[in-house]
Design brief:
Elements (H helix, E strand, L loop, with lengths): L2 E5 L2 E4 L4 E8 L7 E7 L6 E6 L6 E3 L7 E6 L4 E6 L8 E8 L15 E2 L3 E6 L1
Parallel strand pairs: 2-11
Antiparallel strand pairs: 1-3, 3-8, 4-5, 4-9, 5-6, 7-8, 9-10, 9-11
Amino acid sequence: QVQLVESGGGLVQAGGSLRLSCAASGRSFSRYVMGWFRQAPGKEREFVAAISGNGARTVYTDSVKGRFTISRDNAKNTVYLQMNSLKPEDTAVYYCAVDIDRALVPGTVPAAYDYWGQGTQVTVSS
């Protein structure tokens, strides 16, 4: 059974940092694109960042460029999202996902991703 489990969310003041982790089990995803998305109350789920299977290629939404860093450890079947200089508008539930149809070119569309975690809440206070 495939499972993605996010952790590392919490409450932080504006300007602070958090590091999210997403551990995959049930199969290896080391060959595939993995991504992070977020959903704020009353809003649609939006793309945050994604990384190719070999970790060589990353893509970010404009609002997080220079503040967030996605990385992965394929030996641990885990993907990370380091979030620095957090802002109140970063408040959302953060989800990790895997796209088993892509290995080298990270996609940004939620519908392209096949497996999802349950999400972890990130709250940034002003």
